[in-house]
Predict the 3D structure of the following.
Amino acid sequence: KNEVEQSPQNLTAQEGEFITINCSYSVGISALHWLQQHPGGGIVSLFMLSSGKKKHGRLIATINIQEKHSSLHITASHPRDSAVYICAVRGPGGGADGLTFGKGTHLIIQP
Amino acid sequence: GAGVSQSPSNKVTEKGKDVELRCDPISGHTALYWYRQRLGQGLEFLIYFQGNSAPDKSGLPSDRFSAERTGESVSTLTIQRTQQEDSAVYLCASSPTPGPTNYGYTFGSGTRLTVV
């Protein structure tokens, strides 16, 4: 079973700061997802990646397959970015494996 | 529909009763997943359906839990003889036909189950 570790667990930052959230996993994967869960509980899929780097607006996700590590970056952070960010990995079986989730990083951006 | 629809959005039930949760995936999405999130906990995988293949039930926590899906349409998750430990948000997600890696998930808004 894959072990997914996220750090930090909690992060409070000021508006405008550059944010980095890290995710490490123990076993080879077919894909890694970054999810955003808002206070109301709704979950949005931000990125799915299996190599390299993806960018969407102020969000950037990178993955290093050899090191079994991924990072989610937020540039020019804003209070509306406050949410729980969850890293999830899918095993090498692809769709036959359900996601294994990290415990999440609770991000608060203060104005 | 445009997204993954789950119903009910909230359910309060008495311990020992059976409950049924429903998930309507995005039309054309062949893969459907059920997850559970207990209060203050991370997400847990429960069950996976892919087309007409036998489902992957490896995440179901006990034989009180079962799920069905007919073809590529609606899925129902049934919990029999509910216990207080079953209280959680139950999330459904769907995705297009799995390729090597290149597909994403769309999550429903969840069903908040409270067992009293």
In short: Chain B touches chain A through 31 residues (CB under 8 Å). The two ends of chain B are 33 Å apart (CA to CA).
